[in-house]
């Protein structure tokens, strides 16, 4: 039976999610390694019903390795196992499988004592849109069973996928409306979790450029052949917009993104910037650091 999740209706999505969680032995929570906190579902733990939870940090190939280490330590300090993974190459997926068997070993042992021969472990794969849930399942299953695509909202219906003794439930990405700060929303936008027509692409690009001007100036300079970059502190779009203009202008000129009269097409520059960041073309970048890490910008 297939169930429509109606991602737009949170009460209903939550009810369906809760009933599915009751059917599984463990949760595999996918977060984006570039924004491990902002991409978590804030209410998942309230619904977990004591199911073991494994965090998989996808896109580890695009994230800053130092930040990824810091995030692993951060989650470990909270007693949560977080495994960095590249779900396109499969790197890290073996560790996830091991962790799943370990987390459910009690069930397996109990079943063995009862004399059951074949024990199936069921896990639900959850996460925000476009985080890599379906790709994770395909790679784990070593076949293309779930439809994937690099935009949010590809999976519309849940689907069980068998991989030997493990069954994984693919679910549609859910973005909870409780976004704590504007910065969290902007990180989600830059990462590709939010449909393009819903957010302000110029604001997202300005937010990213300000962040990168402090955290990754060399990567910005390299990609867009800029000389020096003054660090810009993000506060809000009104304040930061004039400060990022010289950079947008320089980048626009380099790329020949001009409108009639020779002016730079700022919106086009913003769109291009966000797209290139999402594709990882600037290099390995993490958008947020654990609260205690020194590099937090
Ligand atoms: N480089 C890289 N790209 C990834 C990784 N994980 C996901 N992606 C990219 O993200 C896209 C989205 O993957 P999906 O598996 O469709 O994401 P999903 O979570 O199922 O998305 P919805 O079904 O829309 O909620 C993939 O097509 C890849 O382009 C990763 O670990 N590394
Ligand atoms: Mg999907």
Automatic annotation (TrEMBL):
InterPro entries: GTP-bd, GTP-bd_ortho_bundle_sf, GTP-bd_ribosome_bgen, GTPase_MTG1, P-loop_NTPase. SUPFAM superfamilies: P-loop containing nucleoside triphosphate hydrolases. Residues 123-191 form the G domain. The keyword GTP-binding applies. Keywords: Cytoplasm, GTP-binding, Nucleotide-binding. Coiled coil: none annotated. Gene3D superfamilies: 1.10.1580.10, P-loop containing nucleotide triphosphate hydrolases (3.40.50.300). It is found in: Cytoplasm. Its main location: cytoplasm. It holds the Pfam family MMR_HSR1. PANTHER family: MITOCHONDRIAL RIBOSOME-ASSOCIATED GTPASE 1 (PTHR45782:SF4). Belongs to the TRAFAC class YlqF/YawG GTPase family. MTG1 subfamily. Required for a late step of 50S ribosomal subunit assembly. Has GTPase activity. This is Ribosome biogenesis GTPase A. The lineage of its organism: Bacteria, Bacillati, Bacillota, Bacilli, Bacillales.
């Amino acid at each position: 039976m297939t169930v429509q999740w109606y991602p737009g209706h949170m009460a209903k999505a939550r009810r369906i999610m809760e009933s599915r969680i009751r059917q599984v032995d463990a949760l595999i929570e996918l977060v984006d390694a570039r924004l491990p906190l902002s991409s978590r579902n804030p209410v998942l733990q309230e619904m977990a019903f004591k199911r073991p939870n494994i965090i998989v940090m996808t896109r580890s190939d695009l994230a800053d390795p130092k930040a990824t280490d810091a995030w692993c330590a951060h989650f470990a300090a909270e007693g949560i196992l977080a495994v960095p993974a590249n779900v396109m190459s499969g790197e890290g997926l073996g560790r996830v499988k091991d962790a799943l068997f370990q987390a459910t070993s009690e069930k397996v042992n109990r079943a063995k004592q009862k004399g059951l021969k074949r024990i199936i472990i069921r896990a639900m794969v959850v996460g925000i849109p476009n985080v890599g849930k379906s790709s994770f399942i395909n790679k784990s299953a070593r076949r293309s069973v779930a439809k994937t695509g690099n935009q949010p909202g590809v999976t519309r219906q849940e689907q069980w996928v068998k991989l030997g003794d493990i069954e994984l439930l693919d679910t549609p990405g859910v973005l909870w409306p409780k976004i704590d700060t504007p910065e969290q929303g902007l990180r989600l936008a830059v990462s590709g979790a939010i449909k393009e027509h819903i957010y302000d692409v110029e604001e997202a690009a300005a937010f990213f450029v300000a962040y990168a001007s402090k955290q990754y100036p060399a990567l910005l300079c390299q990609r867009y052949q800029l000389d020096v970059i003054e660090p810009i502190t993000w506060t809000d779009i009104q304040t930061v917009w004039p400060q990022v203009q010289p950079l947008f202008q320089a980048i626009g000129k380099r790329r020949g993104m001009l409108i009639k009269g020779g002016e730079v097409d700022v919106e086009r520059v913003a769109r291009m910037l966000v797209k290139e960041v999402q594709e990882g073309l600037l290099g390995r970048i993490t958008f947020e650091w654990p609260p205690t890490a020194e590099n937090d910008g």
